Predict the structure.
Amino acid sequence: MGDKAGALAAVTQWRFTCSKLDMEPDATIVPLGRIELAAGISVPGQALGLVLFAHGSGSSRHSPRNRYVADVLNRGSIGTILIDLLTEDEETVDLNTAELRFNIALLGRRLAGITDWIGRQPRLNQLGLGYFGASTGAAAALVAAAERPKIVRAVVSRGGRPDLAGASLRRVLAPTLFIVGGEDTTVLDLNYSAMAQLPPETERKLEVVAGATHLFEEPGTLDRVAALARDWFRQHLARHE
């Protein structure tokens, strides 16, 4: 109990005035019902907003692509939370079966629960909240955005599978940016279809990164993703008093 209480007390001690942005995120444990999820939180001084990352299938909070994007967001005065959506035991099962990484309903519920936890943190809850979802994580982000329409201010999907969000797409109100590689033709078609299912009033935009495949491994393509995400979040997350 002592270790858990200490971890919960530590989560309120965010570094809002950090002098360098390449530091490691603050390690945090997020309690969610009967489970605990490992996370890393980085909030620069004078942050304009906060972005919760939903990693893709078979990935984790240690994803080098997401960590790179998070660093670019931090440099753009946007806080970030990189978090595992599965427990260690669940990840072990998923490595053998790959069944949980496609359980979009479960992952969406986890994101919604983490969103509620953020709402109880004294400083984090003062920041406009957005989601960044990669691959299947984009579907989970859209499901959670549909469940928390008054809280989530913006969504960015990187190489996402928004089609897996299903009927939740019709309830997404947050402005959503879809980023897809120009060579990722199958996913591009799925994104076009998903965009058409959003409510008419929902702001949406598709950015196609020329020459990029699904993982944005080509030189300069991930830089483009990060810049697009930063600009989208800076536009939509700032509080309007």
Q: What stands out?
A: The CA atoms of residues 216 and 222 lie 5 Å apart. The two ends are 40 Å apart (CA to CA). The first strand starts at residue 26 and ends at 32.
